[in-house]
Amino acid sequence: MNISNLLQYALFLVIVALLVKPAGGYMARVFQGERTFLDPVLRPLERMLFRLYGINPKAEMVWSEYAIAFLSSCLCATLLLYAVLRLQSLLPWFYPTYMTTPMTPDLAMNTAFSFTTTTTWQAYGGESTMSYLSQTVGLTAQSFFGGAAGLAVGMAFIRGLAREKTPRLGNYWVDFTRAILYVLLPLAFLGALILVWQGVPSNFLPYTEVTTLEGAKQVIAQGPVAPLEIIKNLGTNGGGFFNVNGAHPFANPTPLTNFIGMLAISVLPAALTYTFGTITRRTRQGWLLFCVMTFLFAVGLVCNDHAEQGGNPLVAKSGNVAAVATAAQPGGNMEGKETRFGIAQTVLTAIATSNSSCGSTNSAHDSFTPLGGAVPLVNMLLGEIIYGGLGSGLYSILFIAFVGLFLAGLMIGRTPEYLGKELGPSELKMIMLYALIAPLGILILTSIAVIAKPGLDGLTTNTGIHGFSEILYAYASCMTNNGQAFAGLSANSPFYNITTVISLFMGRYFLAILALALAGRFAMQGRRPFSQGTLPTDTLLFAVIIVGAALIIGGLSYFPALTLGPLVEHFYLWR
Questions:
Q1: Is the pTM here over 0.85, yes or no?
Q2: Segments making up each domain of the chain, as ranges
Q3: In the chain, pLDDT over 70 holds for what percent of residues?
Q4: Nearest CA to 264 among 348, 188, 177, 320?
Q5: Position 219 confidence tier, pLDDT thresholds 50, 70, 90
Q6: CA pair distance 384, 392, nearest whole angstrom
């Protein structure tokens, strides 16, 4: 790792750390109904919306009611988006000359579920498939809705740990509305202005046909890019207006827009740790969770940078490419990298996006070295515990913490508890089920794909070891609602459009419902007093327990699959 790369990584983590307290404190005030600086503008609008939709902000829900509201809002959004996609050829701003990928029923279904679950798995090229109307009314709107829905579930989970002897977790519709009005909308508006200032288009102009310097014809898509690009990051949705995502100069024109995009992905999920600490009145607990997340984030940066900066040994042996960074060239593995950003910004983007449920990549992960590609894969397999998605990142790392408490409880012979909440047999069953859903979904679907002809037909570029990694990466990405992919897998087929929907459906709804059910049980409990037999959960020891539990669960679940893919490929490359 050279000093330039190190400084960029350190600057990013320092800025995130500095923003955690103000952003987290603001969200705590928003979701507790306290006064904020935006109240003079937004509070009247909020009251108007509540009256319009018949919402009583003082009427709270039990966990099952909250879950039904969450599922019903997502179902309505999915059906609406599906209708927009299927009818886009009849709606304005559709250019049939350039929309060359047909919006088949299975592709429309996949895309609708993908965006409403914040996965934004894209089995298509945006500029050759989606009309301007689909990109705005469809995809941009769902990025707001999906992010707000996840944030609402996260707040309900926090209330479950904060409250005592009550079945109520808040009102989903109130949390959903406030997430959009007070958090996502203001930040998206400001961020879109910054992106336009940096050169990101925001218009409804038709596609432009130009002649290149070589005399070839090229079609340049424009459109309402800036609004989609900012909310896809803020809502930890991912995807992109263009097929090459963040590598396109219209979507991500400068190193500044790339850096801002990574901050937009990471700050809100990271700040939720402080929101958690504030609402539960255990700020040390929140900071400990943030430190664990940041430590794992930094480990990913170091490992990915080492792999990519080290380069490909076979290329280095040829003597035609210098593998060591100098003032004249970057060295390392530049295949698949966007030359405007280099290895450092590529690594930062790969780690930030794979840690969250956001696939806003700016490079071809399929062209990473075997270990370089394994790092974002492992980040996803750990299950959104490193900052993670809006709401889902917080309850994901708390589930891992609960597993660690269970293991520690076995060693000291005491019923585990967290913040005075007992983890009894019923709670532990939910926790273990949560830990098993992702491995079951990823590994079963991967095994089906590698033996079924429709699954193998998707390997149009690579087969063998790397082909296996591409399939494993796809289902891991969908299960963690991430959306990024190894580009060698052609996923626009009925087989992959259906099986990836199964994966992303399990990763979003099964896990969220379990989180709400567990929050409901916690809220019904009282709070046990701290005693000499209680394991402190705000110490360095407990941070080590969380990391250890994450590695144990991840290792036991996925190490054989990783061995068959990137690890074997690494040893083959360096043989």
A1: yes
A2: 11-285
A3: 97
A4: 188
A5: confident
A6: 7
